[in-house]
Structure formats: structure tokens, C-alpha cells
Design a protein that fits this description.
There is one protein chain. By secondary structure, this protein is of the alpha/beta class. It has 3 domains: about 90 residues, Winged helix-like DNA-binding domain superfamily/Winged helix DNA-binding domain (Arc Repressor Mutant, subunit A), CATH 1.10.10; about 130 residues, ATPase, nucleotide binding domain (Nucleotidyltransferase, domain 5), CATH 3.30.420.40; about 160 residues, Nucleotidyltransferase, domain 5, CATH 3.30.420.40. It is built from 14 helices and 14 strands. The strands form 4 sheets. A 5-stranded mixed β-sheet has the order 5-4-3-6-9. A 5-stranded mixed β-sheet has the order 12-11-10-13-14. Helix 13 links the parallel strand 13 and strand 14. Helix 7 crosses helix 14 and helix 12 packs across helix 13. The longest helix is centred in the C-terminal third of the chain and has 25 residues. The chain is globular. About 40% of the residues are buried. The N terminus is likely disordered. The structure holds zinc ion.
């Protein structure tokens, strides 16, 4: 039996309404629950007064929300807080073992599976090689690995509330169908169906960039900003890729079908480099460092195994003032800066957080990128601190996939055993 009351489609409709910002009273209540739950997840234990202050909700609303969360089993009264004279206030905390959640990342050569507590703390992670990307096989490897983790850690399978699966393709709002993906064989709903059948819990598919964003919301520097963009320059699988997600007034801009933010295929040079998408001169294809540095690597008899290794090498050669490397590097910066200026003009963000392997190039790279971007930007849009490199959240895709499920437990009408 599933530990939920609501059927899956009802949930996805709710989430879609929520993400589009169209709220009715039940959704407002769930959103309040989600907000209080998310603050508690980030803290040890808090009194009602502090929760009211942080959420800007009234004391009585916070009390109602807390009693809802207690009833679900997600929150417990921990201990008495410090007294300011009268009765000591009760402290509320997340019931971290109320349930477990799985996070999965499907790469091209391996899978990462993690098991997390409700507070987002990792119980155990496993990395498994995968040779065949057929959905039946991927689903089988994921469920075997998760069940293995559950059993080895002495947990009850029924307590797994849901599993988030990050992969490189774009996904529908319900988190069920892969719409388009470089992992062609995974297209469609088979992966979701097979996983749901094998694991008997809620399964959400998500695009890897969204998983990274969820991790960024959870742990990263974006906390506290209302208008921001996460720009992924790099990829976890050593293949160059650009991903963009935009947040406006704290709400994720997803578009009609959840496909918004495809900056990778914005053409920045008409008739330019051929792109796998069928067009020419796409931003992603034009900025591919493996292509830009191919000649200079060959001339110097150098080979690199990964993007990170390439960026480390570029950084070294830049320090040695190697002019061949400089030329390719300047093209790289120029093309990135042109594209980022376009994005700034379209979204007018407070911050653009840059993640991915490009972060390896460090602060010097950031300063050079800022100079180029500023030169392309209309003055009212530019702020000197608009671009920021984010530290790479290790296994951010796995954590993000899990935290998306944890963050939405209240929308699942969750009830602890
Ligand atoms: Zn393209």
C-alpha cells in the first residue's frame, strides 16, 4: 500500500497550478505548510514565534500549519525553548526519519542512487555503471540499487515516500514523460511506468538542470533572492552543455509545457557551427570548449579526459601566458559574454549564478567574463555583482532530485507510518 491518499494525477495538477502561481485556499494552506516545513528543514528546532517572523504568517496560522504537519508525522515537538520569563515555548523540528526519499541521477555511463532522510541528510549513496539505456533496464538497475540500499541500511521499504530521478531530457509537468532527450531510448513514459511498478511509490522524473536548481534552492547561494537565473556551463558527464532556469518573484518560470529556458539553442552566429539540434550557430555548439581548444590541444600533443581536466589545463596555460591558448580562450569568453548579455536583457535578473565545470576556471575567468558581458549590456541592466560562480554542489543532481520530492511531501498528502 502506498503511504499517500491522493492519486498521482491529482497531485500533478496541483503542482502545475502551484508552479503557475494560481492559488486557491487549499493550495495556500499547502503552500504555507511547505514554507514552514522548508524552514524547519534548514534549522534544528524553532518556536512558533520565530516561524511566524520568518514566514510573515500570523501566530495562529503557524500554529494551524504546525498541527497539520504534526498530524502528517513530518514535524515533532522537540523540547522546551529558552524562557524569556514565563512558560518556556515549545520547539518544533522535522521528524527526520518520518520517511525516506530516493534521489537518482541517470548519466550516460553510470547511475547514482542516494537514499535521504526527510531533512535532506544522506543515508547512503551508490554509483552503478550502466551499459544499456533501455528504459526497462535502467528502471531495473535503479530499483535493484535502491532496494539494496534500503535493505543494507535496515530500513523499511514502505517508508520510502518517493523517488526523484534526474536525467538530461526535458520532462512534462507531471514528471512522468521524457519529451526530448539526448538519451533517445529513454524518451516516453516507460521509465516512469517501470519504476513506479517496481518501487510502489511516487516517482518524479526531472531534467538534470532542474535537479541542480532544486539543490541550489536547498543548499546554494540563491537563497534569499527573488529574481535569479541558474546558468549551467558544463556537464556532469564530461560533454559540454548549457542549461538555464529562471526564477521570477521566487517562482520558477517554466512555460506552457515546462520547457522554458532553452538558452543552449539560441543562435548567436547565423550560419555558424552545426548543432545536433539541426540548426547552425547555437550558443551551446559555438561555445563548446572541446571544439574551440581542439586545434591548440592537437598542436601541443595534449589530450584531456574530461571537461574539468580541460579547464584546469586552460587555467595553467593562461598563467604561463601561452598565446595559442589565449586566442581560443578569448573566443570562448567573447561568445559566453554575448549570450549572457542576451539573457540579462530578456530576464533582468538580480543575479545569474553560474554552475558547472566552468567554475574550475575561477575568479579570474569571472572577472574577464564580467568585462565582456558588461560591454554587451545596455547600462540600466548591468550591475557589477550580477554574475557569480557557485561552488559545485557535489552530487547536486541526486540531492536535488530527492529534495524536490521532500519539498512536496505536503502536496502528496503525506502521512507517516
Ligand atoms: Zn542547437
Amino acid at each position: 500500500m502506498l503511504p499517500f491518499e491522493s492519486p498521482y494525477m491529482e497531485l500533478s495538477a496541483k503542482m502545475s497550478i502551484w508552479l503557475n502561481g494560481d492559488l486557491n485556499s487549499k493550495l495556500v494552506r499547502q503552500r504555507n505548510q511547505e514554507q514552514v516545513f522548508s524552514i524547519l528543514r534548514a534549522n534544528d528546532a524553532l518556536p512558533v514565534s520565530e516561524l511566524s517572523f520568518r514566514t510573515r504568517l500570523s501566530l495562529s496560522t503557524v500554529k494551524t500549519v504546525l498541527s497539520d504537519l504534526e498530524e502528517m508525522g513530518l514535524v515533532v515537538v522537540k523540547e522546551q525553548g529558552a524562557s524569556t520569563g514565563g512558560r518556556r515555548p515549545a520547539l518544533y523540528a522535522v521528524n527526520r526519519t518520518a520517511a525516506f526519499v530516493g534521489g537518482v541521477s541517470v548519466g550516460y555511463r553510470y547511475l547514482k542512487c542516494g537514499l535521504f532522510n526527510v531533512d535532506g541528510s544522506l543515508i547512503k549513496m551508490a554509483r552503478v555503471p550502466i551499459e544499456d539505456l533501455k528504459p526497462e533496464i535502467v528502471a531495473e538497475v535503479i530499483s535493484k540499487t535502491l532496494v539494496d540500499l534500503i535493505e543494507k541500511n535496515g530500513l523499511a521499504k514502505e517508508k520510502v515516500a518517493g523517488v526523484g530521478v534526474s536525467q538530461p531530457g526535458s520532462v512534462d509537468f507531471a514528471g512522468k514523460a521524457i519529451l526530448s532527450t539526448p538519451q533517445e531510448t529513454l524518451k516516453g513514459t516507460t521509465l516512469w511506468e517501470k519504476l513506479t511498478e517496481a518501487l510502489q511509490c511516487h516517482v518524479f522524473l526531472m531534467e538534470d538542470i532542474n535537479a541542480h536548481i532544486a539543490a541550489e534552492f536547498e543548499l546554494g547561494e540563491a537563497k534569499g533572492y527573488e529574481h535569479w537565473i541558474y546558468l549551467l556551463l558544463g556537464s556532469s558527464e564530461s560533454k559540454w552543455g548549457i542549461g538555464l532556469e529562471a526564477v521570477n518573484k521566487g517562482l520558477w518560470i517554466r512555460g506552457e509545457r515546462g520547457l522554458a529556458g532553452e538558452a543552449a539553442h539560441m543562435v548567436i552566429r547565423v550560419g555558424g557551427v552545426e548543432c545536433p539540434c539541426g540548426r547552425r550557430g547555437c550558443w551551446e555548439a559555438e561555445t563548446d570548449p572541446e571544439k574551440l581548444f581542439k586545434n591548440v590541444l592537437e598542436k601541443n600533443g595534449l589530450t584531456v579526459e574530461s571537461l574539468e581536466e580541460l579547464f584546469l589545463l586552460i587555467d595553467d596555460r593562461r598563467d604561463e601566458k601561452d598565446t595559442q591558448f589565449d586566442a581560443a580562450y578569448n573566443t570562448f569568453i567573447a561568445l559566453l559574454g554575448e549570450g549572457i548579455a542576451n539573457i540579462i536583457h530578456i530576464f533582468n535578473p538580480e543575479k545569474i549564478f553560474i554552475g558547472g565545470e566552468v567554475v574550475t576556471l575561477g575568479e579570474k575567468f569571472l572577472e574577464e567574463l564580467k568585462i565582456k558581458t558588461m560591454s554587451c549590456c545596455l547600462p540600466p541592466y548591468w550591475k557589477n555583482d550580477i554574475l557569480e560562480l557557485t561552488h559545485i554542489i557535489e552530487d547536486g543532481d541526486v540531492l536535488g532530485a530527492a529534495s524536490w520530492v521532500i519539498g512536496h511531501l505536503v502536496f502528496l498528502n503525506f502521512k507517516a507510518y
